[in-house]
Design goal:
Elements (H helix, E strand, L loop, with lengths): L17 H4 L7 H22 L3 H7 L4 E6 L6 E7 L1 H4 L4 H18 L6 E5 L8 H10 L5 H6 L6 E3 L2 E3 L2 H17 L6 E5 L3 E3 L2 E3 L3 E5 L2 E7 L8 H13 L4 E5 L7 H17 L2
Parallel strand pairs: 2-3, 10-11
Antiparallel strand pairs: 1-2, 4-5, 6-9, 7-8, 9-10
Helix pairs in contact: 2-3
Length: 278
């Protein structure tokens, strides 16, 4: 029977395992807790991948930070995973139950005493300019490219040397690229610009996807769960984009991101209407 927790035999020059690190009696309590949290994350991710559950293993790669924190009753420490707001919905109750069982298995094998897993939203980095940040959130604007250079975020979704902010954006990109390289003829294909930063009248703008096709530029936006609350602002922005030369604007419903056939229909409709726009 294969031992999922088997360690590499000790050899000179190799890195210490987490279990070996935890045997250091001089390790301060805060560093020990940080090490336990990372050890649990590492084992959960590796075992999920080994056992064929690559989808959940990929979701764990979306976690920004992992810590041990007191439960609501203050009785024991839980493993807390912090994720971006855009990815929080992926961590369903069923998925959390799976992670809790796995955490309990690993914790029991190593005597770590951590029996529960929770997920919470990552807090943004804020400072005295927080009012401007709130206004950007209300208006649906993302930070400009200048802000990205000053405060680069970890690139968790990379493809073709392009960075995406979540899995849904990468999924849309892959289907657009498939049409670019495998469906449309080379002499009449599309160009894809994910998350470019630019300026339209009276505001900085970062479309989700700027696509050029048959001499026209189109904007393909991905709706978020709170899109309806910002509809009036979106309409105003769409008018500004059209006035600035964007020929066609369309939206990907958030529900379509989980349905490949529906997402393909949305993309094909966008390209067809962009080609026909005047």
């Amino acid at each position: 029977m294969t031992n999922d927790f088997a360690h590499t035999p000790a050899t000179s020059g190799r890195s210490l395992s987490y279990e070996e690190m935890l045997k250091d009696s001089t390790l301060p309590d805060d560093q020990r807790e940080a090490l336990v949290a990372e050890m649990l994350m590492a084992y959960m991710s590796i075992l999920l991948a080994r056992r064929g559950d690559t989808t959940t293993a990929q979701l764990l790669l979306q976690v920004n930070r992992w810590v041990l924190d007191w439960d609501d009753a203050g009785r024991e420490k839980d493993l807390v995973l912090e994720v971006d707001a855009a990815n929080r919905s992926h961590f369903t109750n069923d998925l959390l139950e799976k992670l809790r069982h796995l955490c309990l298995e690993i914790s029991g094998r190593f005597g770590l005493g951590i029996n529960w897993v929770e997920v919470r939203e990552t807090l943004p980095v804020v400072g005295p300019g927080w009012r401007e940040l709130v206004q950007r959130e209300i208006s649906g604007e993302r930070p400009t490219n200048q802000a990205r250079r000053l405060q680069p975020a970890p690139r968790r979704w990379l493809e073709d040397n392009l960075a995406f902010t979540n899995e849904g954006e990468q999924r849309v990109y892959r289907l657009l690229k498939h049409r670019q390289e495998n469906v449309l003829p080379p002499e009449e294909t599309i160009a894809i610009f994910p998350l470019p930063n630019g300026r339209i009248a009276r505001r900085t703008w970062e479309p989700d996807f700027l696509v050029t096709y048959k001499g026209r530029a189109g904007d393909l936006e991905i709706d978020g769960p709170h899109h309806n609350a910002r509809r009036a602002l979106d309409v105003t922005r769409e008018h500004l984009m059209r006035d600035s030369g964007i020929a066609y604007i369309d939206r990907v419903p958030v529900e379509a991101l989980e349905d490949r056939a529906e997402l393909e229909r949305v993309i094909d409709r966008f390209l067809r209407r962009l080609a026909e726009s005047r």
